[in-house]
Amino acid sequence: MTETEPLLRILLIEDDEDDYLITRDLLQDSSPVSTRLDWVDSASGGITALETGDYAVALVDLRLGPDSGIDLIREARERSISTPFILLTGQGDDELDVRAVELGAADYLVKGSLDGHTLIRSIRYAIDRAMATESLANSESHYRLLFESNPAPMCLVAPGSLALVSMNEAARALYGYSNDELDSLTLDKLRAPVHTSPRLSSEGILLREGGTLERHQRRGGEEMIVEMVSTNMTINHRPLQVLMITDVTSQLDNSRQLRLFKRSIESSSNGILITDARQDDLPIIYANRAFEKITGYDTADVLGRNCRFLQGDVFDLSNEQGLAEIRRGLKKGTDISAVLRNYRKDGTPFWNDLYISPMRDEQGEITHFIGVQNDISERKSAEHELAFNISHDVLTGLPNRTLLEDRLSQACQLSRRYGRTIALLFLDLDGFKLINDSLGHRFGDQLLVEVGRRLKALVRSGDTVARISGDEFIILLPDLAQAEDAVIVVETAIHEIAKPYHLDGETVHLTASAGISFTDGSIDKPMALLQQADLAMYRAKQQGRNTYQWYSQEFNEEASYRVALRNELQDAIDQEQLSVYYQPLIDAHTGQTRNVEALVRWQHPTRGLISPADFIPLAEETGQIIALGEWVLRKACRDMVHLHSRGFRHCSISVNVSPIQLRKEGFILTVTNALKAFGLPPESLELEVVESAVLLDTDVVINTLHAIRALGVHIAIDDFGTGFSSLSYIKLLPANKIKIDRSFIKDVIENRSDAAITQGVISMAHHLGLEVVAEGVETEAHATYLRKNHCDLLQGFAFARPMPFDDLLAFLNDQGAGNTLATRTSDRSEQERTLLLLDDEENILRALTRLLRRDGYRILATTSVKEAFSLLAANQVQVIVSDQRMPEMSGTDFLSAVKAIHPETVRIVLSGYTDLKSVTDAINEGAIYKFLTKPWDDKQIREHIQQAFLYYRATVS
Ligand SMILES: Nc1nc2c(ncn2[C@@H]2O[C@@H]3COP(=O)(O)O[C@H]4[C@@H](O)[C@H](n5cnc6c(=O)[nH]c(N)nc65)O[C@@H]4COP(=O)(O)O[C@H]3[C@H]2O)c(=O)[nH]1
């Protein structure tokens, strides 16, 4: 042994000193290394010495007085004293020896047979083994520590039985078991029941090599998904499985959720962009498919770019507000909502409803911006269309009343400022309703579009053409130097509208009536201009249409009057201010009254007698005509029954019926009820219907009239010739009578057109088996002419005005007394040769009369053309001699008219001067039989006149 070798310290725990000495000697003699043997003689002393940790080995006597070496070893182990022990025993202690080894003694030696060599070898062996055991224990405890305190849950499982041999703290915490419960645990118990475990997919998370997913359950039954990595090991000669367990439940959930989010973003119909907020200029780092679809850009085109390229290259004012919002939001880091006009890759614009939201990290720093785009171009265009429709007329595309109102107020402001004049033209198409009703609404629509187009074409760019309802157009001229400048526009407009329309193969003519109002902008309510122009237009209509009128204050008064009248009419109906007058219709042949027409009258308490021509149209507008008409009908029936009871049974009553009454359901019942109520025979009642009544709801009206006719009631077509006459309607109407409107009768004796129409209507009506009444027969001449032309009934002031019922009774009584109204051409006049002389010079007339009287003619002489017509109408004239040169009209013109009205007459011109052209024309047209010159030869002229009478007789008979 060298000096440097360490001293081997040995402790002997022995109660026998001799044994100590023997052992010391043995060691000194045999140990190759320097040893020091310390001796204690008691167990407690031994423990104390050992606790110093200074000894490489301890020799312990089995029997230590009252103590046992075995107990000492046990106690030492309990005190974690790791010093190796060699037990010294006596002979025959074999069993105890074995127990000592079991307790951890390294060896045992029998004292009596102990030699130095054996002792040293045993000591070395004990020390080596102790060192090996310590190193093993050291490493075992490291590993245990590693296992136990590993934060990753781990289990040791016995293969086959799957019993859990060990579970580290993390695993116990994961599953919720305590160490004491491990004995009864198996891996299967950790697993969730198989049937609740659907196929697991690791999609979205990365598993470790060899890792598998299993559905496990905690102690309380709560399920979780774990990743298990299993490794086979042999520990202490025992094969074991080491399970590394990771709870991936939330990881999987997160991954699933992330995938869901990703899929939603991918499949969103909104374009989604993500930009990196940590880089300058916010480059795009993600764009979804919808973005590509909306913009036409591929993701690759846009990655790394700032979104502003979507705004195109041009400055767009409409984007300014949206961009300001975005800048503000980006700066503040708040959510942003803005609408921008963006451009697709192909350059087409679209409206982008943009929502930008910042994304923050855990520290609250903005890392990204998410932009959600919505292409709202369609909505925008629908909004635009809606806005257009709100302010425009859908049919013509012209501004409507709302927009007109707007423009009118603006115009007022401007004209006030610049001292200009505004004029408003109100144009209403004449008779458009009839065209619309007869040719169809589609046709009417086309017509309105065309009218709108024509009007638009004639105004300047600052003017407005609007359509405010059906057939009403407005032209707003906001910038006139003076109001009169509107005249040229209104005249052009009327002229343009009057040009023919060629639509759908039809040619239609249309006129318009217009009203003009104007202001210098100072008007309080600009829309009042519209009312004023409307009133003026109404006046233009009254003046015969196809013309225009300026607004004046008196129109306003008239309109107020009409409004007041409308309101008072109801009181009139309720308070019996109405009465019925009767006007006789005279039989043209007998001169007797055959029929009376009931005509309503309104005796207003303050306004006096109001004409039905004023209030009937109002009653029609308000619908009051229904009640009013029924009242007249009943009153007329009652009075007629009264009349019959007074002996005038031959007399029937005519009652006017408005088209509105005819269209109203239940009208037939109204008629039957009236008849029944007073017991008037149906054939004693006649209803007068205007021809235009059939233009609207034709079928309904015609059916109603047929039903009325079937009752036995008669029907007359009133005001014939004034409406939109259609001969085909007359054929359909179950009428008995036609009443020629008084506008034709008025000039019938001198106006060849009126005469032709009257004669035509009489002839047509007779061919259809209808009777004809002439209205407005004001003179004897009218009556005679009409009688001559075979008119059946005559009505007019020439015979009687409309009168109260009592007056009618008196009138009829008077007639019954023989005072017939026969203003018939006398038989004499029919038989006699009658000659009419017309010359504006009295002396010539006298001379001629004197000369021709000798030949026995009945001579009618006059200086006036008008009177000549009357004489012709009232008398059966055969020959006419007319001067050529007269102030009213030329002789040839007069005779040409006479030819049209009285074609049977023989017509001679007597003239002092010769306008050859007009005379030859007249002769060629057949208007003149002979042309005689002044001064005349008495004999010659008498012969010519005689020949003329002969000629008459020859041609007429
Ligand atoms: N210038 C002139 N006029 C003559 C002459 N003879 C008659 N008249 C007038 O001509 C009109 C004839 O009636 P109408 O054509 O049916 O025209 C009637 C009729 O359409 C309507 N009317 C009158 N009463 C009623 C009624 O009870 N119901 C309905 N629906 N309408 C009525 O009012 C219109 C006007 O009635 P009135 O003012 O009573 O006017 C009456 C009558 O007074 C004449 O020789 N010369």
UniProtKB/TrEMBL annotation:
Its EC number is 3.1.4.52. Residues 139-182, 257-337 form the PAS domain. Its cofactor is Mg(2+). Residues 9-126, 834-949 form the Response regulatory domain. It comes from the Bacteria. It catalyses: 3',3'-c-di-GMP + H2O = 5'-phosphoguanylyl(3'->5')guanosine + H(+). This is cyclic-guanylate-specific phosphodiesterase. It comes from Marinobacter panjinensis.
